[in-house]
Amino acid sequence: MQDWARRLSAIGRVQCFDYDYQTQRRRRPDFLPQLMTAHRRALATSRRPGEQVFLVGKSMGGRVGCHVALEEKINGLVCFGYPLCGGGDRARMRDEVLRSLDTPVLFVQGTCDPLCPLDLLDAVRNEMKAPNSLHLVDGGDHSLRVSKRQLAARSETQEEVDGRIAGVISEFVRQIAGNTNPGSAA
Questions:
Q1: Partners of residue 76 on adjacent β-strands
Q2: Which of 26, 53, 125, 149 could pair with 21 as two cysteines, CB 3.0-4.6 Å apart?
């Protein structure tokens, strides 16, 4: 996410953080309530009065950000590689939080992401009450990386793919912020 923090800083102020299990070098993530507490703590320390806030997270960070948005005033969410299916198991859907959201969401998904089958995401998105949009990364995996073979066949680089993603995020923020100071992304 450090590379994305650099890219997103062109859109607004960015505050990164690590969950407690990461700083303690544990492999197993904390339970959802602990993850949410860490997320809210980072939000509280970075939030400035009157500033618009967009939570941006990769995989679990995006999912936790969605849970936080149910309890905190957030202007928008950007989910990189949302882990819709726990462990890639289509029977273990993580969609309840998405259906409960009111906060606008931009999903950035790789077309080859086993944790988020696009047919299931389409069905959930159609049932969400929150405004939501989807940017597909053709050939992208769960980390939005496209294979070197596919990139070569298309005569493009991962940097160009990532630049398009950044442009989509910028437009999403601009639309929600109404062309005012977009504030920060946490």
A1: 54
A2: 26
Q: Residue 168 CA to chain centroid, in angstroms? A: 13
**Which amino acid, 61?**
G
Residue 180 makes CB contacts below 8 A (sequence gap 6+) with 52
How confident is the model over 132-174, as pLDDT tens digits? 999 999 999 999 999 999 999 999 999 999 999 999 999 999 9
Entry pTM: 0.92
Tokens representing residue 73 in the block:
């005033």
Burial 144-183 (b: 16+ CB within 10 A, else e): bbbeeeebeeeeeeeeebbeebbebbbebbeebbeeeebb
Query: How far is Cα 60 from Cα 57, in angstroms, rounded to an integer?
Result: 7
pLDDT tens for residues 11-61?
999 999 999 999 999 999 999 999 999 999 999 999 999 899 999 999 999
